[in-house]
Amino acid sequence: MNSKNERVKAIILHAKPYQESSMILQVFSFEYGLFSVIAKGIKGKKSQAKKALLQPFQILTLEITGRSNLKTLVGCELEFNEAINASLFRDRKLACAFYANEVLIRALPERHEFPDLFKAYCQLLANIANTENYSASLRQFELVLLRAIGVAPDFNFDIEGMPILADNSYILSVQGGFSKATKIELNDSFPGSVILSLGEGLITESHLKQSEQICRRLMRSVIGDKPLQSRKLWQHSNLT
C-alpha cells in the first residue's frame, strides 16, 4: 500500500472503539487481504449514514490513505450484491458468519493478498444468507483457507507417499497428513473416500459429519485453543 488514496473492495470483520469518536476496523480485502483502518469521527450525528455502512457482512468499496500499517478511511460505498443480504444474518446464521470472521482474523497474516480466499468468503456469506443447509459451505471455506495459508494436508497421498485409497481407513497424524490406520486406530480413523472427496472440495450429505471432524482438527492447529466468541453465540442460538 502507498500513501495515495486507494480504493479497495473489502468486508469488515471486526470493529472496536478508538478514542472518543473513532473506530478501528479490521477488514478483509480482495486487494490486500487482512489489514486495519481507522474511521475517524464516526460516532457523531453527522456520520450516522457512514456508520450504518460500516457493518460486517457487506461488500464495501473503501477509500483509504496513509503510509503506516494503520490506514485512514476517507470514504466508503456499498457495493450492491443481491446474493448477500446482511439483514438475514440472525441466530445460527449470524454465529456461522462470525465464525468465518474470527478464523480469518486469527489465521491470516496482515497485508498479504488472498484473492481466491476473498471470493470463497463472499460465496460463503451468500450461501449462509440464502440457504438453511450451509455446513458443507463452511467446510469448503475452511479448506480454501487452509490451502491459502499453506497448511492443508495432502488429500491424495499419505505421509509415506502412498496414494490414499477409497477403501482404506486413515488417521490424521500429528505430522499434518494422513497415515493408514492400524487395527487399534480404526475407531479414530476416516474413510479414504471422504479424504479424497475433501481434496476435490466435494462434501456430500453422507460424509458431512466426518468432513466436519477432519476440518475441525485441521483448523484447531491454525486458530489455537482460545475459545471462539462465535461458538458461544452458536450455543446461545441453540437455546433460543
Automatic annotation (TrEMBL):
Keyword annotations from UniProtKB, A to Z:
DNA damage, DNA recombination, DNA repair
Q: Carries keyword RNA-binding?
A: no
Q: Which Gene3D superfamilies match?
A: Nucleic acid-binding proteins, Recombination protein O, C-terminal domain
Q: Does the keyword DNA damage apply?
A: yes
The record ties this protein, via InterPro entries, to: ARFGAP/RecO, DNA_rep/recomb_RecO_N, NA-bd_OB-fold, RecO, RecO_C
Give the species this sequence originates from. Aliikangiella marina
An example Gene Ontology CC term for this record: bacterial nucleoid
Q: Name one Pfam family in it.
A: RecO_C
- The chain positions of domain DNA replication/recombination mediator RecO N-terminal read 6-78
Indicate the family of this protein.
Answer: Belongs to the RecO family.
- Its name, as the record gives it, is DNA repair protein RecO
The protein's job, in short, is: Involved in DNA repair and RecF pathway recombination.
Enumerate the Gene Ontology biological process terms: DNA recombination; double-strand break repair
